Amino acid sequence: MQIFATALIGLLMAVLHGIECGIWAAVYLWVGALDSPTDALLYSVDSMATLGASGLTLQRPWQVMGGLEVAEGQKLSFEAKADPRRGKTSAENLKML
User: Which of 2.60.40, 1.10.287, 1.10.150, 1.10.20 is the CATH number of 2-96?
Assistant: First the structure.
């Protein structure tokens, strides 16, 4: 039962992160930082995952927004790895096994 709950929480988090990427992409389009909805979503997912492999860049006045999204993606990644029950990261929990 606990595996099912964990999987459900993981799926919910993935959906919420996808929605967040969509919101960032909509903002990029709204301010004119990117021209295509596809490019905006690709850039947003790439930035949130902190990969930087898409080859897309924002227009010069909006490049700080991309950095903010990268910082938010890193923060969410670190939070997802934390174990709130013990205050340890998943890597530290694996060392205990």
Answer: 1.10.287
By C-alpha distance, which of 42, 61, 64 is closest to 53? 42
- On whether the CB atoms of residues 56 and 42 are closer than 8 A, the answer is yes
pLDDT digits (tens, 9 = 90+) for 40-78: 999 898 888 877 777 788 888 888 888 888 888 777 766
What is the residue extent of each domain of the chain? 2-96
Separation of CA 15 from chain center:
11
Dist CA 25 CA 30 (whole Å): 9
